[in-house]
Specification:
Keywords: Amino-acid transport, Cell membrane, Membrane, Transmembrane, Transmembrane helix, Transport. There is one protein chain. The chain is mostly helical and 217 residues long. It has one domain: MetI-like (MetI-like fold, Orthogonal Bundle), CATH 1.10.3720. The chain is built from nine helices and no strands. Helix 1 runs antiparallel to helix 2. The radius of gyration is 21 Å and the shape is flat. 27% of the residues are buried.
Length: 217
């Protein structure tokens, strides 16, 4: 037990980096995903096609590859020619990747709404933005809670991928202690940290689902 106490400070510091990546990605990727979904289902075929291609690319290639490309390859692209530090590179890769997944979740939720509700809103004189804001999106948010929960929990676990950029996240902190002390206990503690984070998220989403279920009743 004393050993666990001694290794907690570096693991807590690493978990702070993990939480930063998670929270910043979530705050940026969710609204971006909603925007992409709205463009994806819009009548502007060219823009819709571009977004569809973007989503296909982001979902069809590994997140780790995207992260390594942003960090190592961007400096060699003539138009860009700038090397981002490790943290911005990780954030950019995560936001671009997860916005594509969130976009598909939002798209499926929006398209699940009965067309009659759009027509009813039009009869009431509502514009398309008003219809989306007042009628469609509140129902969509309720319907997409389960897939959003799954994707958010996956995001927590995927933050461990920033290890490849030599960032001092939770996994790298644990690995460093393992190599120093020749014991696997730090990995067990790190796993407990990840489990606690996913448990909190699971509980939060379950509360939201129960709240919306009451409104359905």
């Amino acid at each position: 037990m004393d050993y666990i106490v001694t290794i907690l400070p570096p693991l807590l510091q690493g978990s702070g980096v993990t939480l930063q990546v998670f929270l910043i990605t979530l705050v940026l990727a969710v609204p971006l995903g909603l925007g992409l979904a709205l463009v994806r289902i819009s009548r502007f075929k060219f823009l819709s096609g571009l977004v569809n291609g973007y989503i296909w690319l982001m979902r069809g290639t590994p997140l780790m590859l995207q992260m390594l490309f942003i960090y190592f390859a961007l400096p060699f692209i003539p138009i860009i020619g700038v090397r981002l530090p490790d943290f911005p590179s990780a954030i950019l890769a995560f936001v671009l990747n997860y916005s594509a997944y969130f976009a598909e979740i939002f798209r499926a939720g929006i398209q699940s709404i009965d067309r009659g509700q759009y027509e009813g809103a039009k009869v009431l004189g509502m514009s398309y933005p008003q219809t989306m804001r007042r009628i469609v999106l509140p129902q969509v948010l309720k319907r997409i809670l389960p897939p959003m929960s799954n994707e958010t929990i996956t995001l927590v676990k995927d933050t461990s991928l920033i290890y490849v950029l030599a960032m001092n996240d939770l996994l790298r902190a644990a690995r460093g202690i393992v190599q120093r002390d020749f014991t696997t206990s730090p990995f067990v503690v790190a796993a407990a940290f990840y489990l606690i984070m996913t448990l909190v998220l699971t509980y939060g989403f379950q509360r939201l689902e129960r709240k919306y279920a009451v409104y359905d009743d």
